[in-house]
């Protein structure tokens, strides 16, 4: 029986994994996080679960929890708007420290949650994606058995990206960056959690990069219209804002006063890069089917007959 070492347990994805974890499947479960996670009752009552409150770069505080029987699931990352130094400090450099600690301990497997943004063709100014790509390279160059997951847009209650699109789609007149033709392939958070746990349970650490998305591919325009219809019914009017009008001024301001901006220019990459996956066995698994976009939106909005 393996030990589990999970980082980012207090985050959006990590908290969903906690709800699915069965303590009986692991000898020990170590949760590494900077803030105390809200443990579900079945984990609070388990005597083999330990929370280590530390940052990724505080290796001395968690290294003793790594060993030859350990499976590492690394979710912790800086996301959203941050400066370039912070992305690379945490997502790349601190991940590198964890990788080296795992190497020294000879862990049995290392699963790294990356992002589909790494596959974007145009990532100018998207430091989050660049930091994730460099972390992938560190893992690939290691002596560890590893697996890299690149999920697409993750939808679920509490998902930051869902909250942004949900707010945007409430309006009758929606201003959308780009031409609206960009293709996306959203995945339900519970499906992603199930796939992650299946990989861990099967100890599938075959030194491979797996892009993970849901069963449906749709345009950005269609996605926003479906959210609007699920929430308010009917169709919204969408006005497309040319990205050149957005990115040019943003990049200029970023050079001198980045703290004044609510978003970075790199965060617009999803509006001009397709966020779809290369087919693999996890995209259309043989077992339990994955939720389609209409099912996701129905669950998230509580609508019954509008999607």
TL;DR?
The protein has 307 residues and is α/β, with parallel strands linked by helices.
CATH class of the domain at 3-155 and 187-213 and 276-286: Alpha Beta
- What distance lies between the first and last C-alpha atoms, to the nearest angstrom? 44 Å
Task: Compute the CA-based radius of gyration.
Answer: 20 Å
Order of helices and strands: EHEHEEHEHEEHEEEHEEHEHH
Number of strands: 13
The rough form would be described as: globular
The SS-based structural class is: alpha/beta
- Spans where pLDDT lies below 50 across 5 or more residues: 303-307
Average pLDDT over all residues: 89
| Approximate strand percentage | 15-25%
Q: What does the main sheet amount to? A: 7 strands, parallel
Percent in helix: 25-40%
Q: Treating each run of at least 4 consecutive H or I residues as one helix, how many helices?
A: 9
The CATH superfamily of the domain at 3-155 and 187-213 and 276-286 is NAD(P)-binding Rossmann-like Domain
- Adjacency order of strands in the biggest sheet: 3-2-1-4-5-6-11
CATH fold group of the domain at 3-155 and 187-213 and 276-286 = Rossmann fold
CATH-level-2 architecture of the domain at 3-155 and 187-213 and 276-286: 3-Layer(aba) Sandwich
